[in-house]
Amino acid sequence: MEQYWNNRQKQKQAIRSGELWYDDGGRHINAHGGGIIKYGDTYYWFGEHKDDWTSNAMVGVMCYASKDLINWRNCGVALSVTAPAINQTNRQGGRRRGGATTDSDIEQGCILERPKVIYNPVTKKFCMWFHLELKGRGYDAARYGVAVADRPEGPYKFLYSQRANAGTWPLEGSPMHFDEYLKRDFGTGQMSRDMTLFVDDDGKAYHIFSSEENYTLQIAELTADYLHHTGRYTRMAPGGHNEAPAIFKKDGTYWMITSGCTGWEPNEARMFSAPSIWGPWTQHPNPCRGPKAEKTFMGQSTFILPAGNQYIFMADIWRPRHPRDARYIWLPIEFEDGKPVVRWQDEWIPSTITK
Length: 355
Ligand code: DGJ
What we know:
The chain has three helices and 21 strands.
């Protein structure tokens, strides 16, 4: 108990990566693989709810709200997965995916990862995209899902899930490098796994996702309502095996930090830059510095948040045996010789507090 109060007191003053982070109800924040938007004077943090015994989605996407990035109010479930109907296994006309019992793509027990939300000022809707794997099919479906809400904290209404840009070649035209899966999936749509969203200064939004059996990232433009792909997309780092994309833009340069592909195990972060979202993308050395920098401090990137005068690198320390106990790494991005650097700090105070 004493330890709990000590931690809570410390937590109210600074960001301490890797420790338990409590919400206003005294529970460890349950928003993994997450992302944050600022709306008005409030930050809304969305992430995967995880149980103690499974990483599959038993609840859905959680939302937390804060004005200072340190004290978080639990806003509850923003997007709920659908509970299975009772006594309806193998129902005629229903989906039969390994015993699935509802018609919903986001059925309880599906895999729903890395939710991200962006606000569309024209439609005044909050648009949530996430990586979806249909229940009982492991990581085969490789879809994205889209949901929408009128308020930041939801409730979000699930719209649809599918693969990306079926029947469309990337802007580069005919396939060249590591193109086997691009060609294979041309008709049914490109695979869409680890993902993030990015809204550019001109209001155009992009979906960035691991595709082609995780060999190649794809960057796809969204329609003006942020609810669909336009069909314009590019391939990034073909054959580079990147997951967990996180992106920000500073002084006209786009910076992306990703991970390699080692499941829940940490690996060395990668960094890329480009003068345009469409590339060309140049790879740079690992931006992490400090203990375990070669393993991203035992974490995996999920988002980069512009906040005050800072950019905050966000990552997850996964705990696959106790998924709910996964921890968060948030570190301010520094710049050295014009390039981003993520330096470990045991604790630090965000500029939302100091200014
Ligand atoms: C790594 C991904 O980045 C995570 O989101 C998750 O899909 C795990 N793999 C599952 O092994």
